[in-house]
Write a structure and sequence with these properties.
One of its GO terms (molecular function) is heme binding. By secondary structure, this protein is α+β, with helices and mostly antiparallel strands. About 50% of the residues lie in helices and about 10% in strands. The chain has 17 helices and twelve strands. The strands form four sheets. Strands 1-2-8-5-3 form a five-stranded mixed β-sheet. Residues about 170-195 have low confidence and may be disordered.
Length: about 425
Amino acid sequence: MELPGTDVYVLAGAEYLEQALVTDVDAFGKTDDFNRVFGNGVLSTEGEQWSRQRGILQPLFHPERVSGYADDMVAATQRRLATWEDGERLDIESEMQDLTIEILFATLFGRDLAPGEGDDLRDASDGLNKWFVPTSWLLPHWIPTPSRHKFSNSESRLRVEIRRLLAEYEYADKSGTVTLADQVGQSASDGQSGGSESETLLSKLSEAAEATGDEHLNPEEIEDQMLTMIFAGYETTASAIAFALYSLATEPDVRAAFHEELDTVLDGRPPTRDDVSRLDLTNRIVTETLRLYPPIHTIPRQTTREVDVGRYHLPPDEQVHLSVISVHRDEQYYDAPLEFRPDRWTDGFQEELDDHAFIPFGGGRRTCIGREFARLEATLALATIGQRFDLEWTGDETDIAIEPEMTTKTQNGLPMAVRER
């Protein structure tokens, strides 16, 4: 793809994505854009630094620990739904962003946010997307644009909020006062929300600040991990839940079967982690949404050396986009790829699918650390919402325009009327 002042190579085949993410992974490095946005966070670092950071954070996302977040996820969703009124028209895309940042704090941060309490944080985090607006992204980094100004302002605001959070929880208190880990443990013993087994992202970072050797994170790394987790921990899952609700609102047959499953499996009670495996259609709705509307529509990379991809020769230091959405919507892998069909994910379809033809969470060693967390959150939130509300699409057209920023978003939101069931 030839663009003004630069060339961008777009890889849009499962075999090409596998080459870039697995077989020739060292030839495709992270771009400078990741460092500009996430600093030394786990999304942007490479090599030993990335391995060390991933190892420190990984215990928070162990499957058993993730399943322990289920009740907090459902409770946060119920608090958000309590603000909805029957017949009210809402932008569901925005609502799901509010919801997922509230879930993020209730689980990884061990702190309940009242609906609306996280608005400033969410608004600042959302501005990070502006670095990837195409009209700005194509230009040299030193050229000021309105989008870049909004990005810089948002990044500054977000870092101020992060420093406030870190100070509030005294993650590196050297004065001998109560530490964050003590506060979290006390909250758990008092019956308050303390996250899974009293360990939260903040307590983990507190430990890393005081550790030595491979377990240590310096203050800059800690701040950048917070920025990364706040953005990645809510924006992508919000996209998945919102597009799932849009798909249900515009597919009445699927919606009816979805509500029937919830009524049968849950029988009027809130969903739990033990219900997830029995919500077969709900899980397939989440999977099909991740296919048709992958939260990360493209994975940017930069060649570190000369590399041949198929019959093409890529020079070093060239921009490469791994187009996840193109592969997910390729009729080579999916029948009627533009149609929302949860039933395609039956009879062992995924096991027979080409490797890397379905990679909503990336692939290879850099697969998203929070993938199990995100799937559980999306499934439980969708079930909790669908149990209580029926959503009616109120947009002018059923076709929606996608905004290609860092995450998959719409240009005009997702307006829906919420009807109590």
